[in-house]
Amino acid sequence: MPTWEALELTEPPESERHLRGWFIEVPRGGGTGEDYTRGDLYTMDVKGWVIGREARATAVEIVYHDHVIRTDPVRGARPDIVPAFPELLQLEHPDLLGVCLSGSGPSVLALCTGAEEVIAASVGAVYDRIGVPCVIRTLSAHQPEMRL
Q: Tens digit of pLDDT for each residue in 77-98?
């Protein structure tokens, strides 16, 4: 079976404008010591996730030496990354500013101006409803010198 290695995975400069986040799980970039042995010399499996900034991401381009060599469709949701995220985005409370991914997942951050315990309970209820265990931490930032 052929073996090849992904030497480098780079983020295109325009991705910040179009994407909220992305991560490539397979193949991994250089320096991991992992050779890629799936498929054959002409096949490359790519597994990961992408979240569009303004709209749903619909395709991923594979670029080699500044040329797009393949465009593949994004094939649906990845509930294994953050299973409750779509439902968490629908939460409403006057003190809830918004919900976002923290890092590259699976952590979720809910920003609020008050009612922390109520909002934390709402987040926990979503995870309970879909049967995914979670740990909820309530943190606060205190900056006495700051004035709005």
A: 666 667 777 888 889 999 999 8
* Model pTM score: 0.49
Cα–Cα–Cα angle for 62, 67, 71, rounded to 5 degrees: 35
* Residue extents of the structural domains in the chain: 15-73, 78-148
Contact 46, 27 (CB under 8 A): yes
Between CA 44 and CA 40 the distance in angstroms is: 8
Give 67's strand partners. Answer: 64
Cβ(54)–Cβ(45) under 8 Å? Answer: no
Which phi-psi region, left, alpha or beta, contains residue 115 (left: φ > 0; alpha: ψ -120 to 50)? Answer: left
DSSP the chain: ---B--------TTHHHHEEEEEEEESPPTTS-PPB-SS-TT----EEEEEESSS---EEEEEETTEEEEEEE--S--TTTSTTHHHHTT---TTEEEEEEETTTTEEEEEESS-HHHHHHHHHHHHHHHT------------TT---
